[in-house]
Amino acid sequence: MADESTQIAVDHYTADEWVAESTASEVTSLRSSINDYIYENGRRYHAYHAGSYWGSNDEKAMDALDISHHVYMLLLRGKLHLAPIPNEVNRVLDVGTGTGVWAMDFADLHPEASVIGTDLSPIQPAFVPSNLRFEVDDCCDDWLYEKPFDFIHARGLFGCVSDWDRFYKQALQHLVPGGYLEQVEWSVWVDSDDGSAKGTKMDESGHISLEAAKKFGKSLQTVNEMEENMKKAGFTDVTVHTFKIPVGPWPQDKRLKNLGRYQRLVWEESLEMWVMMLWTSILGWRREEVELHLMEVRNELRNSKIHAYQIAYVFLLPYSKSFIDSIPGGFAMDENQPSRQYRYESTI
Ligand SMILES: C[S@@+](CC[C@H](N)C(=O)[O-])C[C@H]1O[C@@H](n2cnc3c(N)ncnc32)[C@H](O)[C@@H]1O
């Protein structure tokens, strides 16, 4: 072993190896900065690109995301996706992966696949299937993946993206021929067939959030705007599946009753994380005012006379050769570019 007086032999690196080595150590030293979470109004928020997303990432929010996953699974009758991808896939991306629950299930079911889950928050577990890795990344930045994907999955990205046109173009540029982008979203407002949700605090909440998100610069009208945005980005071959998600166990149908029971739980667990930042920082409400409003919503969630539901959409977007051909210079991805593992910015 070398002591202080011994000269340390210098290892030899190629330029590329040295870049890889430096990046790895930078990742380690900077990893802590993404955990310097922001605390506000009793909730915890992401530090990477702080302030760019309104949802909190604390334990309660994480629990709510995991319950939502169960709702999505009930909605799609136990399927992780509707896109007709082959049984064996190579590369899969889950954008805005949250707690990573979808990506973990997918990686377990597809041991042959190499799965990447990205998010602004590093809230995913450390021990995951060996064919899965999580990265802290902002999907609104340039996508710098080294190889295209067979399947790109995005779920619950309402209010996460200001420029959907760019998002869809980047996603489609990162698909292999035959690949699919699937996006699953639900409305942030409620409807009812018998008018019982009209004028409720639940109804009002959705509209307040829509207004706040507009001011914030990331629309929450995602479900209404997606198809047009996808078509604007150059795709005509969009398939849309529409579902109703009851909020509460009010439906007669057993399956919907069960779905509604879980969705009510999602509401109860998520309400504050959905609105606290938008209503206080953007609309100027006081924390107590928000809490009072949410207390009324909670009461309504237990009112059997309110038959509210949300609309969920699943959009399937296949790889489009005509779109890729229309990009000046051809396929926009540089296959030789090294993949970016993490992007960090100091939060100080
Ligand atoms: C409603 S959650 C959905 C999580 C997950 N897709 C699911 O369905 O369980 C939205 C997630 O998107 C992440 N997010 C928001 N804006 C983002 C962005 N610009 N880039 C990457 N992730 C983002 C949030 O941190 C959050 O985890």
TrEMBL record:
SUPFAM superfamilies in alphabetical order: S-adenosyl-L-methionine-dependent methyltransferases (SSF53335)
Name of protein: Methyltransferase
Pfam families for the chain: Methyltransf_23 (PF13489)
InterPro entries associated with the record: SAM-dependent_MTases_sf
Any one GO molecular-function label of the UniProt entry: methyltransferase activity
Organism (species): Aspergillus sclerotialis
